[in-house]
Amino acid sequence: MRPDAEPRQPQSSPTHAPPASPAPPAPTAARRRGTGRKVLVGVGAAVLVLGSATAGLAGGVLHGGASLQPVDGEGAAPDTAEARSEAAPAEEPGERVEFRGMSVLLPDGWAAETVTDSFGAGAAPEEGRVSEDWAALYPEGQEACEAQEWDWADTSTGCRHLKLLGPGGIAYGGAGWAAVTMEPGPGSTYTASGNAQPCPEGEPTFTEADPERPAADQATVEESKVGGEPASFLVTSLTCLDEATAAFTNVEQRLWLVPGAEILVVDTYRFEETEALLASAQW
Predict the structure, then answer these.
(1) Contact 214/207 with Cβ under 8 angstroms?
(2) Per-residue pLDDT tens digits for 122-132
(3) How far, CA to CA in Å, does 175 sit from each of 11, 116, 170, 182, 207?
(4) Can you spell out the DSSP letters for 212-256?
(5) Single pTM value for the model
(6) What span, in angstroms and rounded, lies between the C-alpha atoms of 166 and 137?
């Protein structure tokens, strides 16, 4: 450069505002069915969980834990598939269902309904009962589920489903309307009746002498987690009535009790999806 040459001013590149992120979809409209005290509403709502990167940088690390990529000569991060993957918002497929401060991700092809019900012992007067919500989660495509009149005390409905219950179901869901305690005795199953109910359709049954029968008086409560929350887990034996033979028999039942949230999960159909559904729980 000549000594008398004027210094050249750097030209600034025009800046462009980043495109606005698309707005998340609005929750699906609630479905409402049923009459009387049973009010059914769909609680499945599409939810996108969007990951975000904190703009501030410190020590070469993106706030949020992601390491920065080496920059090229122009001062911009290289445009690699890995970099784009880290920067892109993560989208969670499916629908989430909210219940008592917990949300779970429904398996693909499942639906959910909440039911406002009246919990109490047998024919107890209405003023002595507890009115609260519980949720039924089930695979779609079952004809029996479409016109189902849900009742918290039914263990056999024709519609294969999971139950999510609150304090009322815990307080009165055991045999003879006892509390579900997860301990040997009346509180070791979800029966919600003074008598054995019909066996859930399609589930294998076990006789008293069957060595594969999960004996309620021998079952051991295990420590578990539901979305990180401490829970008790029990595989137990539910006494039921085989309507084809009019004989009492047993089916396997799985229970998860989350004491801190007062939530009881009842699986009498041994769904393969149950454990993944509970692992997806967020609080």
Answers:
(1) no
(2) 888 888 899 99
(3) 81, 22, 11, 12, 19
(4) TS--TTT---EEEEETTEEEEEEEEEEEEEETTTTEEEEEEEEEE
(5) 0.69
(6) 15
